[in-house]
Structure formats: C-alpha cells, structure tokens
Design brief:
The complex is a heterodimer of chains A (about 190) and B (about 325).
Chain A (H helix, E strand, L loop, with lengths): L5 H19 L7 H18 L9 H20 L13 H9 L8 H4 L2 H14 L2 H11 L5 H8 L3 H23 L3 H8 L1
Chain B lengths: L3 H14 L7 H51 L6 E9 L2 E4 L5 E3 L5 E3 L3 E4 L4 E5 L5 E4 L4 E6 L2 E6 L1 E5 L11 E3 L3 E15 L2 E15 L5 E4 L2 E5 L5 E5 L8 H5 L11 H12 L3 E3 L2 H9 L11 H9 L4 E6 L2 E6 L5
Parallel strand pairs in B: 9-11, 17-19
Antiparallel strand pairs in B: 1-4, 1-6, 2-3, 2-5, 5-8, 6-7, 7-10, 8-9, 10-12, 11-12, 12-13, 13-14, 13-15, 15-16, 18-19
Helix pairs in contact in B: 4-6
C-alpha cells in the first residue's frame, strides 16, 4: 500500500473503516459525526505510522489502540460527552480478552451484562474475525442470503463460499466461547 | 467442525443481535477521501525519501569506487578489478594488498582482484559477488580472487551459495593446493584440513578435480574428502543442523520491508538448508496474504523467522521434511 497501490489502499479501507466506526460509535454516545471525525483522525495517523507496523495479524487491534487514543483526545478537545461512555469491553481485563480472544475464567459476562450489552459484545467479536468471515456470516444468517447470492457478492464459486462459511462458523463459535466462557447455546439463552 | 446444532445456535445468536451498524455512504465517502489524501501524501513523501537515498547511495558508490581505483594504483596491481563486496564481517578480518599491506575489512567495502581476504581465529566474513553468488568465509581462511570466476584458497573453509539455474556468468572455480572445485547451481562448503580437501554438498552438484587422482562428482547430501595422495572418501551428511550454523549466522540480512512473507520463508529455508512446507492449504493461503513491514537487521535466519512469524497468525515447527508452517492454535 505504501508503494502507491490504489487497490491495496481500497482493500485496507474497506476492511477496516466500518469496523473502526462501530468500535468507536458507542464510546461517543452514538454521535455519528464525532465518530466520523475520530475514525478519520485514526486512519490519517495510521497512514503515517504504517511503515512502522510489523505483521498483519494484529492490524485491527493496532488500529483500535490508535482509535481509542483519538477518541480520548477528541473528548478532551471538544469537551463533549462529559459523561464519556465507559463500555464494559473497555475494562482492562476484558479488553485484553477481546484483543487476544482469550477468556478470563473469573469474569462471567452472561451474568454481568444486560441483553443489549451482550448483543454489542457479540458484534464486537464478529468485528474481530477476518472481515470476509463476519460479512459472510451476517449475510447468510441475518440477511438470509443464499450461498449463490453470497458467491455473486464475493465474486467466488459456491464451493468456496460453503468452505468459507464453515471456517467462519468455527472461528466465530470458538471466539464466542473464549470471550464469554460459554457455548453459543447459553449465549442464545442470555440474548433471548 | 460445526454440527447442524452448532449452526443453528450460531444462526440464533446472530439473528438475536441483528445486523451490525453500517456507516452511511456519504460518511464513508467523506472519510475515504480524507484517508486517501493522507495516504497519497505519505506515499509521495516515501518516494521522495527513496529518491534522495538513491542519489546519496549513487554518490557514495561513485566516491568509494573512485577511492578504490585511486588506492588501487598504490596497493594492488594495475589490472585490479572489483571481484566482490564485503557483505558482513564478524570478528577480525583483514585485507592484504599485493604489496603486503594489510587493513581491517569492513562491511560494504569492495574487494579487488589480487587482494587477499584473511579471517583470524575469531573472524568470519560474507562476500557478495557481482554475479549473485554469496560466499561465506569461516575462521582462519585465506582466499584471493583472480577475477569474479576464479579464487584460490590456501587455508580454512568457505561456503558458496549460487542460487538459480547455473549459467556461465555464475561459474566459479575454487583452487586449493589439493584440488579445484566447480559447481553446477548449488550450495556447498569447501574446507582444507591436514593436506586434504573436503567438500560438503548441500544442494545441486559439485565437481572436484584433485591435484592427484581423477575427477569426482558430489551431489546434495554427500561429503567428499580427497587426501594429498588422491585417496577419495565419500559419505552421506545432513544438509542442515548445527554443522551449518556458522553459515546461517553469517547470512547477509534480507531486506523484508514490503516483501511477501512467502519470499522471506523461501530465503529462510535456503539459508537453513531445509525446505519450508505448509501444514495445510489454510496456512499456505494465510502466508500468501501477508506482506512484511520493518526490518530483521542483525538477526540470524532462525531468529528472524521467529520474530516475523510472531507478528502473524502462523507458527513454525521442525518437521521431518523441513520447517512446517501452520496456523497458530486459535485457543492459545
């Protein structure tokens, strides 16, 4: 991307922009304009620092760290949202969990979180999966698209989509179990 | 694997939480334009920096060549030509000119024909030949190049790595008091000890012409030893392991910035003498997606491998068939 490849830039933007927006929006009381400003600042800063970034696996985590600092700066400058929202996943122990997808044994989210908080956490977990996995799962199970329709959207064959969905389900199920310390079945019970 | 019950539960979880919030198209376009502007500025800055470096490097290279030519009038024969550049130095290494003057060898220094490169008992060096051949000198080695294709070694041990298809341009003849060695696109070590020459072949094929006796050919995984009387001893050897560590530790650093991970893995495999294999299609696909940033300067290939893989979802393990690259356990 730093060599000037426009396709690489677009792929980067498409992969991370919406996820960062969703990451910061609830931390700014749902203020869409503030979220835009913070994400824009985050991406500008990331562009300047990208040369120092090593590896691919933790890219979103790295961007979230920048985004979190941008949000704090934004709030300090604008003095808006004086009651800055402190989300449950901003608690250090849970933040580590979500960033590394590794569960703390003593923290029972199903007991400590309300339904809407649980729902947002599930979506955070979804955003930590590779973007294609999360999109495919959402298209299939929330929007109700067929495998054929997903294949058309992604420009790949049906077999590839089925294979990707299988991998996405495994990744999502494992990530849920690690974050919540509970099976998908128990999480459903907490959500319904 | 997920069962149909798992799938149903996942479906129920996703339906219960609903679709994730999507930023509006107008907002997305606004941020994309701003980020794109910043990206273009960073790209332009990097390209300008690269051009400045290139200019500086060219100027420095011209200055070094001019200096070398000027000094060559005093310390080497008039026909001295550039035969290699010194890529790495470890411990004490000297260059002895034709008039017997010695000076310490330093990295990036040119080596001219007629100059003798001498490593001490704690010294080692790596050379980059203009034709792409990499040469490493072990302790107590003395070598002198007649030109880029012919060198004479009168003590110690060297390792030669000539990657790719053998060509006339990449020919190299190593002459010793006991015999001469030529290669055919390969990696091998030549060592002199107790009036005998020993050739260990890691890859490809090597021809050894003893001063006494008939031409011998060694293939990958073989060690040939020819004594002063022409007696030949042949045995099988490992192409990787502790005996080759000195070679890997002298490997010139690979510039990984902007390079695909697979290219880096291929370099590691070549330096360590082990093929890199993927545990499955998933790990191969993952590796294919990764482009590296940063530097592994100063790290051996083993350490560089560990450092680079720690920034990815991939891990390495020693397998019977080489270095096995697999996806890390998501539960860890």
């Amino acid at each position: 991307m730093l060599d000037g490849d426009e396709r690489a830039f677009n792929a980067f933007f498409d992969s991370y922009f919406a996820r960062l927006y969703r990451f910061v929006l609830p931390r700014l009381n749902g203020d869409a304009e503030a979220a835009r400003e913070v994400v824009q600042g985050t991406l500008s800063k990331a562009m300047r620092k990208l040369g120092d970034f090593r590896g691919e696996a933790a890219m979103f985590t790295w961007l979230c760290q920048i985004c979190r600092r941008e949000a704090v700066d934004f709030l300090r400058i604008h003095r808006r949202h004086a009651d800055r929202v402190v989300l449950i996943d901003d608690q250090p122990e849970l933040r580590a969990v979500i960033e590394s997808i590794e569960a703390p044994e003593e923290f029972d989210l199903l007991k400590n979180c309300g339904r809407s908080e649980l729902g947002r956490l599930v979506q955070s977990v979804l955003d930590r999966l590779p973007a294609r996995y999360a999109d495919a799962l959402e298209w299939k199970y929330v929007e109700g698209l067929s495998v054929d329709e997903i294949a058309t959207r992604l420009g790949v064959g049906q077999v590839a989509v089925q294979s990707m969905l299988a991998r996405a389900r495994v990744s999502f199920r494992e990530a849920l179990e690690q974050v919540f310390g509970a099976s998908a079945e128990n999480i459903v019970a907490g959500l319904e | 694997m997920t069962t149909s019950k798992d799938e149903t539960n996942i479906e129920r979880v996703l339906q219960a939480v609903g679709a994730r919030v999507q930023p509006s198209e107008a907002l997305t376009n606004q941020v994309r334009e701003a980020a794109r502007e910043q990206w273009l500025a960073v790209v332009a800055e990097r390209q300008a920096k690269r051009r400045r470096w290139l200019l500086l490097a060219t100027a420095a290279s011209i200055a070094v060549t001019a200096l070398a030519v000027w000094m060559g009038r005093f310390v080497t024969s008039p026909q001295a030509i550039l035969v290699a550049s010194i890529a790495r130095v470890s411990g004490h290494v000297e260059i002895a000119g034709t008039w017997g003057r010695s000076r310490p060898a330093v990295e990036n220094q040119p080596l001219l024909s007629g100059e003798k490169l001498v490593t001490s008992m704690d010294g080692r060096a790596a050379l980059a030949l203009p034709n792409g051949i990499s040469m490493r000198l072990d302790h107590n080695t003395r070598i002198e190049f007649a030109d880029a294709h012919r060198a004479s070694m009168d003590s110690g041990g060297i390792y030669v790595d000539s990657p790719g298809v053998p060509t006339a341009e990449r020919r190299l003849r190593i002459e010793t008091p006991v015999g001469a060695v030529q290669h055919f696109g390969t990696q091998y070590e030549v060592r002199l000890a107790s009036s005998a020459i020993q050739v260990r072949v890691r890859e490809g094929r090597v021809a050894l012409t003893p001063t006494q006796g008939i031409l011998q050919s060694g293939i990958a995984g073989e060690q040939l030893t020819v004594g002063a009387n022409g007696e030949v001893d042949r045995m099988n050897i490992d192409t990787h392991g502790a005996e080759w560590d000195w070679v890997a530790n002298l490997a010139p650093t690979m510039n990984i910035d902007g390079k695909p991970l697979v290219e880096f893995l291929s370099w590691v495999g070549r330096e360590l003498g082990e093929p890199v294999v993927f545990a499955n299609a998933g790990s191969e696909a993952e590796a294919g997606k990764v482009v590296l940033r940063g530097s592994v300067s100063g790290l051996s290939p083993q350490d560089a491998l560990a450092a680079v893989l720690s920034t990815t979802r991939l891990r390495d393990a020693d397998g019977g068939d080489g270095i096995v690259i697999s996806l890390e356990d998501a539960r860890r």
